[in-house]
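seq as requested:
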Amino acid sequence: MHPLTLKFMGEWAYLEKPFLRDYYKPSVTQIRLMMILGSALYVAFGVLDAVLMPKHVFSIWMIRFLVVGPGLALVLGLSSTRLFEKYLQPILAFAYILAGSGIIAMIVIAPPPVSYGYYAGLMLTFAWGYTLIRLFFTWAAFAGWLQVILYEIASVWVNPQPFDIFIGNNFFFISANIVGMVACYSIEYYARNDYFMKRQVEQEKENVNRINEELEERVRKRTEDFQIVNKALLEEVAGHEEAKEKLQEALERLKKSMSVTIQVMVSAVEARDPYTAGHQIRVANLACAIAEEMGFTQEKIEGIRLAGSIHDIGKLSIPAEILTKPTKLTNLEYSLIKEHSTSGYEMLKHVESPMPLAEMVYQHHERIDGSGYPRKLKGDQILMEARILAVSDVVESIASHRPYRPSLGIEFALEEIEKNKGIIYDGVVADACLRLFREKKYQLP
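C-alpha cells:
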C-alpha cells in the first residue's frame, strides 16, 4: 500500500476497485446512522445557543437548521442512490467540512467570551469525521486541515480572540486534529490489510483446490489401473502360480506408487515450510516406535507411518509467509494455521486405504480432555493411532528448532508429556513414549 494514500500499488493495484466495493457495502448503514447522529447533535446544541447568547440565537439557528441540518439530510438522502457509491469519499468530506464550517461560522457570530468556547464543538466534529463516517485518510486529512485554516482566519482576522485564549484553543484543537488523523489512518490501514489477507487466503485456497484436484485425479487413475490389473489377475488366480506372482508384482507397484504419492505430498509441504523440513518423517518414525512398543501389528504400524508422513499435508492451504513467520502469530494467522487438520482431511478423504489415513490426519491435534481442535473430540472418540501421532507431534515440535524460537530440548518435551499424561495425552501412549526415551534410549534422528 502507498504509505500516504494507502491505495494498493504495483502488482496489487488491481485490488483497489474490488476493495472499494467491498468497503462500501458494510459502510452504508454506519454512515446513515452517523448522519442522523450528527444532525441530532446539531439540533440538541441549539438549546445551548439559546441559553448562552439569546440575542444572536436567530443567526446561529439559521446556520444550524437551514444550512448544516439540510446539508446532512441531503447526504443521508444521497446514500440511497448509485451516485453515493461512486462519489462516496467526496460526499462524506463535504458533510465533514459542512459540519465544521457551521461551527466556525458560529464562532464568528457569537460575542466574546461565548465565542471562545465554541472551538470545543470542532473537536467533536473531528471525532465524528475522522472515526465514525468511514471517511478515508486523505479526504479526512484534507477536510480537517481546511477547518483548521478556516478557524485560524476566523480567530485572528474576523472575530479576534485574546492571545492566551487563542493559544490554548489552538493547542487542543490542533492536537485533536492530529490524533484524529492517526486514528483515521489506522482504521483505513487495518481495513485494507484485512481485505488483502482475505484475498491472499482465497488465492491460496484456490491453489490448494487445484493441487487437491490433481492429487485426486492421480489417485483415481491409479485406482483404475489397480482395478484393471486386479480383475485380470482374479480370472487366472485359480490354479496358476504365475497369476499369484503377477498379483504380487501389481501390489508392489501399487504400494510403490502410493509411497511416491506420499513423498510428493511430503515434499509439497516441506517446500512451503523449509523450517520444518523432515518434521513429518521424524514424527512418523517416533509414532511407529511408540506403536511397536505398545504391541501394534505390523500392518497398523505401516498405516501409522503413512499417516505420520503426511499429517501436515493441510499446510498447503496456509500462506507461506505465515508458515515461516519468525515472530508471534496474530489471532487471525493462528486460526488459519489451525485449519490445516481439516484441509488435510479434505485432501485425503477419497484416498482408498485399509487404514483410516484421513481420520488420523483429521484428529492429530485432538486432545483426550476435549481441548484440541478442530472438532474438540474427547477420550475414545479419538482413534488410538491419532493419539499416538499427537504425542509424537508434540515431542518432535518441542525438541526441534522453529522460526520463532530455538529447540527447547528433548527433556523439556518429555516433561510436557509426563506432566499432562492422562489429562490431554493418552496415558498408555505417554508411558510408552517415556519408556522409549528414558529406558531404551530412543533418539530423534
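The CA atoms of residues 147 and 204 lie 45 Å apart.
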